[in-house]
Amino acid sequence: MPRFQLDFISLQSCGLGAQFPQWLQTQKELSFIDISRANISGEVPDWFWNFSAKVYHIDLSQNYFRGEVPEFTERVRLTKLDLSHNNFHGPLPHFSPNMMTLILARNSFNGTIAPVCESLVMNNSLSLLDLSSNSLSGQLLDCWRYGKNLQGLNLAHNDLSGEIPHSIGDLANLFFLQLQNNSFSKNLPSSLENVSGLKILDVSENSLSGKIPIWLGESLSTLEILKLSRNKFDGIIPREICQLKYLYFLDLSSNALSEVIPRCVGNLRTMSGEEEAPSFTYGPYADYRIPGMFVIKGNGYDIFFRWFFIVIDLSDNHLSGDIPEEITSLTALIGLNLSRNHFTGAIPRKVPHENQFETFDNSSYVGNPNLCGAPLSRVCSDNLHDDMIDCSSNNNNQLEVHEQGENNNWLEEFSFYISMGIGFNTGFLLFWVTLMLKTSWRYAYMRCLENMGNKIYVFAAIRLRKIQAAKTVSNCPN
């Protein structure tokens, strides 16, 4: 039996093995416990749940624990509990009045969220609640007026149903709201326009219907991610969406939207590279990685390198008319999916295809039989004429250069190379001297290098995913 008494213990990623560390039973003075990612399995022993009244932080995430979880109403010092990525089951536990962070995601909890509502009545501190990827069911109770300090709410990937309650709009401090992959129906509650600081709104993969409300653009000016895909929204894409200058991920796919893409789409300043959205941090919990997925042509990717996945997905709707020329100003776009609509005419020739890590291929536009132009194989007559002129012009230029090259003598060539060498060395020296003397330029250059490295990483990840998908298809039996 150890003779020491610890106050703080962090054994994360230590690979403790299958058995729960029994020596912890001797520690009566602990206030901080972190044994996440330790490869422990089985049930958590009863004696552990009777932990010291001094404990304010418990993290058992990313292990293989199973069994039910007791109530925590009497643990008044406990402010953070993370049991995510395990196999816990049973009803949700009630939590203490001082709980600030409760993360129970990726388990097998079932039943309703009634224990959460009952605990919120007595709790004025909860700021982060993540119950995603469980087996919770029933309606989302209208109790959120008691959670006014909530900054993050994730109930995604459950079986919740009914209407999204009006009291969600009372969460005035909310940064992100994730309700995707449930069975919510009817309209988005108009009270959400009161959550003016919202940065992420994801209600995709539900049965929501009606028009896309104009207040999304008028009132939620800080939105960075807006996902309404795989619902039953109809009508037009409101022009007010163009007011979201920080928006870098817009997914309205798989709905029943009609008419044209608003020409004001060029006003999306982050997508055009004119506006840098503020770095997303979740209050004091900067280490909390917001769980979520986005899709580019059927491939899922974590929201992680957010700056390199600036995306518009309007696929699988009933949109029509020309693709607006204004979309060519969105030079920061990495993913554009307009497939399976009713667009007509030519794809704007200035849509940047070289910057997109091969996400702007034919599949971005397929399913629009009256659309033509690169990268589609269907050639527009005007484009063909322009291409012929360009080809003729290029041939003439090449001939002139060739004739001029034959007339150059060795002295001119020698002078050219000398001048080029002097110019390069001078420019190279001035570049590094400037970086040494100007701090802001030096920081900008380092950020550029970091961004370039991240882009290369993302490109490699996408290519690897395509290769793996191709291998999977080739290995499938006929």
From TrEMBL:
GO cellular component annotations of the record: membrane
Membrane-topology descriptor: Single-pass type I membrane protein
Location(s) in or outside the cell: Membrane
Gene3D superfamilies recorded: Ribonuclease Inhibitor (3.80.10.10)
Transmembrane segments: 414-437
Keywords noted in UniProt: Glycoprotein, Leucine-rich repeat, Membrane, Repeat, Signal, Transmembrane, Transmembrane helix
Major localization listed first in the record, in broad terms: membrane
InterPro entries: Leu-rich_rpt, LRR_dom_sf, RLP23-like
Pfam families in alphabetical order: LRR_1 (PF00560), LRR_8 (PF13855)
Name of the featured protein: Uncharacterized protein
The organism of origin for this protein: Solanum verrucosum
Organism phylogeny: Eukaryota, Viridiplantae, Streptophyta, Embryophyta, Tracheophyta
